[in-house]
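Bug report (template v2)

What were you trying to do?
Predict the complex of my protein with succinic acid.

What happened?
Run completed; filing so the output is reviewed.

Input:
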Amino acid sequence: MLFQKALTSAARIATRSHQFRSPLTSFSRLSSTMAPKLRDPSLFKQNVCYVNGEWIPAKSGKTFEVHDPATEQLIGTCPEFTAEDTRLAISHAETAFESFRHKTGRERSKLLRKWYDLVVENADDLATLITWENGKPTADAKGEVTYAANFFEWFSEEAPRIYGDTIPSSIPGNRVITIKEPVGVCGLITPWNFPAAMITRKIGPALAVGCSVVVKAPGETPFTPLALAELAHRAGVPPGVVNVVTASENTPEVGKELTTNPTVRKISFTGSTPVGKLLMKQCSTTLKKLSLELGGNAPFIVFDDADVDLAVAGAIASKFRSSGQTCVCANRIFVQRGVYDEFASKFAAKVKEFKVGNGFENGTTHGPLIHHKAISKVEEHVRDAEKKGAMVLLGGNKLPDLGPNFYEPTVISGMKVDMAMASEETFGPVAGLFPFDTEEEVVRIANNTTVGLAGYFFSRDLERVHRVAEHLEVGMVGVNTGLISDPASPFGGVKESGFGREGSLYGIGEYQVTKMVTYGGMGKKLQS
Ligand code: SIN
C-alpha cells in the first residue's frame, strides 16, 4: 500500500518531469572545444616515462594512444612498458631506497612541501590535463588538484613526527622499544577517476616514511601522473625515489611484475574488487604488505526526521560527483516513505539544473563518462530497472549528439532490491531511489552487499545517528553530509571493499614495518 503510494507520487513527479523534457533532452548541451593549451607546455610528457630521474621510452619503442573522452580526439601517446621495463624501474627504486630511507624526517618533509608548492603553482595546468584526459569539468579538476596537493601538505607535516614506542617489558632486566621503519620499494597502482589525487594519496605517506615508489599510471589518464613526476623532479626528489611507468594493453603484465617481484615490499591499489583480488593472489607469492581500496555500493539513507533540503544537497554531491564515477558515490538512495515524494521532487529539480557538456566549456557541471564500457553499464542498469518496474523520472538516455561517452543525469523512482543497481556499482550518473519503512529494514538492506566502503545517512535524531552509524557495515560514514573525503580522515573499506587506510595518521602505518628491539641486562643497581 505504502509502496503503491510511492509509485503514485513517483508517477506524479514523472509527469511533471516529462513536461520539462524536450524531445532531445532536458539538459543543456554544450559543443566540444579544441585541444587546450598549457601555460607550461613542458609539463606535457609524450612517449616517455619517468625512471631514475630520467625520461625514457619503452625499450621496445612501442606506445599507446590516449583519447579525450569528451571528443574522442587523440591527446597523445605514451610508452607501452613491459615487465622488463618495469623491472628496470624497480631496481632503480631499490637503489634509491637505500639512501632515501636514511634521510631525516625533516628532510623528507621539505621535499614533500616543495612538491606541494609546485603542484599549487601549476594547479591550472594540472587541472587542464585532468579535464582533457578524464573529462571532469574544469572546476572539479581544480578541486581535485587542491585535494591532491593537500595529501602532500598533510604528509609533509607527518614526516618529522614518526615515533616509535617504549614498552614496559614483562621480563625483569629487559627494555623494549619499537622503531618504525619504511617497508621498502612500493608499487602503487592507481585509477583514472582521480588522475592526481589517488597518486598523491599514496606517494605522500610513502615518501614521508622513507620508501621509494614505482607508480603504474592508468592507461586512460597517464598525462597528469607524468606531469606530477616532472614536478617531483623540479622539487629535487632524488633519482629513483619516484618512478612513473605507463602501459595500456600491457597493464596486466606490468601489474604482475609489480606484484610478484621480490624487491617490491608493498602494493597499494585503488580500483575494482575483481582486480584487487587478482593482485592480492599475485602478491601472496612473495607475501607483500598490501592496501586495497576497492569497489563500493554506498547506501545513502534519508530518514523521515532528516532536513530534506540538506539531504538533497548531500545526495547531489555524493551521487553526481565526477558524474557518478567515484568509489564513494551514493549507489543506492533509500528514502523513508514520509519524505519520499518531497525528496524525489526536490532532488529531480536540482538534477534538472545540471549542464552536461565538454568539461572545458564555461558552465558545464557534468562531463562525459570515461569510455564506452562505462556508458554500456549505465545503460544496462537503467534498462534493467525499467524492465523490473521502476520509473525514470528524469534522463535515462545517451546523449549521442554531444559525443559517444555522454549520458543524461538520471533519476529513477520505485527501485527494488532485485534490480541490478541494488547489488552492482553503477559508476555513472544514475540515481535510483528506493522507498523504505523502518530503520531496521533499511540498515539490513544497506548491509546486504558483499562490499562496504562508504555509507551516508541524514537524520536529526541524535540516538539514531549513533545507532545507525554503528550498525552500517562500511569503513566510512557520512552523517548529514554527502562529502567525506579529506586528507586528514582515514579512507578505506571493509568486506570486499578491501583493507588498509589512506590519508590521516593511519595512512602512514601502511608504509611502515614495526621493528621491536629488546635490550637485556638492564636495570641493575647503580655502580658505586
Ligand atoms: C575513489 O573514488 O576511489 C576516491 C574518491 C575520493 O577520494 O573521494
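What did the reviewer find?
The CA atoms of residues 372 and 405 lie 6 Å apart. The longest strand covers residues 175-182.
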